[in-house]
Design brief:
Length: about 325
């Protein structure tokens, strides 16, 4: 294997210059840096990551801890993180917590043990794991969910506004009893989307009926069970706002199984777009989150936090958009 001294001889520079180039220092003359990079390619030189990490006291890797790898919402989000990370000279490892605080905590332990350069986390909602990172001096950004009791950079979507727009649209489309399937009671996104739903009802002079509200688990099976419960309860809903994409898919499956026509007899709006939402029939009305931009913004904040550890934490809230399709528009 080629060594740093082999690269230095091949490029006609000192070993110290090669070291500065390998470590991303910007003080090296551009022409010299180009010679070093060419020599590294010619010799197939690979820096000793273990030794470099010992010197730096950290790796050049970011951990991205997401709550559900099965949810398409996170695909574009992680791509946004990775694009910024790669441009900044970092690699990304993806960790799936499955909405399990214990599993999340184990990934945080691993991030600390492996001396990750930073962590982006969609938390299960408890501050303990994030605060462990903060106390250890590991740069961290919360994404998608605000974590009460943890003071860190945070990137969110305007959940309440999106849920308000979805519910208002169903009411204005002529549906009389709009139900809501939201997420777990203690999850901030579920609370915010439920609040947007109730705000829209009140503004349109509709009663807030607890019989029309169900809490589920942000999974397809949970959405199906919640929809079945609403239909069997005697509450007689004629529309539903599903507070995430997978629960909305489950609700639609239940309506199909019951032979209930969408949108003629029942209106449906979901939260989070799905790549194939425009392909199903009827096509699915959704609240679209700027998922790529969520990831990109979180990564930019993390890079800034690494460069400037002492700056005050900031919260960035991105806007949502209601994409109206067939599932919420009654035929004339």
């Amino acid at each position: 294997m080629a060594t740093i001294y082999d690269v230095a001889r091949h490029a006609g520079v000192s070993a110290a210059t090669v070291s500065r180039v390998v470590n991303g220092r910007t003080t090296v003359d551009a022409a010299l840096a180009a010679r070093v990079h060419q020599a590294m390619r010619d010799l197939d030189y690979r820096p000793n990551a273990v030794a470099r990490n010992l010197r730096r006291q950290q790796t050049s890797i970011w951990a991205v801890i997401i709550s559900d790898i099965g949810n398409p919402f996170f695909t574009s989000l992680v791509r946004g993180v990775e694009d910024v990370a790669q441009a900044a000279g970092y690699s990304v490892v993806l960790c799936n917590s499955d909405e399990d605080p214990g599993k999340e905590d184990r990934y945080v332990t691993a991030a600390l043990a492996e001396q990750m350069a930073g962590v982006i986390i969609s938390s299960s909602g408890k501050p303990a794991a994030i605060n462990r990172l903060v106390e250890a001096g590991t740069p961290v950004v919360a994404i998608d969910r605000q974590v009460r009791g943890a003071t860190v950079d945070t990137v969110l979507s305007d959940n309440e506004h999106g849920a308000d727009a979805a519910t208002s649209h169903l009411i204005e489309a002529g549906y009389q009893r709009v139900a809501c399937i939201t997420g777990p009671r203690k999850t901030p996104t579920a609370q915010q989307r439920l609040r947007g739903y109730t705000t829209a009802l009140k503004r349109h002079k509709r009663p807030v009926d607890d019989e029309l509200i169900r809490h589920a688990d942000y999974r397809e099976e949970g959405g199906y069970a919640a929809m079945a419960s609403l239909l069997d309860s005697g509450a007689e809903p004629d529309a539903v706002f599903g507070a995430n994409n997978l629960m909305t898919v489950g609700a639609m499956e239940c309506l199909v199984d019951r032979g209930i026509s969408v949108p003629a007899r029942f209106g449906v709006v979901g939260f989070d777009d799905i790549p194939w939402a425009h392909l199903v029939r009827p096509s699915l009305t959704t609240v679209v989150q700027p998922t790529y931009e969520l990831g990109r913004t979180a990564a930019l904040l993390l890079a800034e936090r690494i460069a400037e550890p002492g700056r005050p934490p900031s919260t960035v809230t991105l806007q949502t958009e209601l994409k109206i399709r067939e599932s919420s528009v009654r035929p004339a």
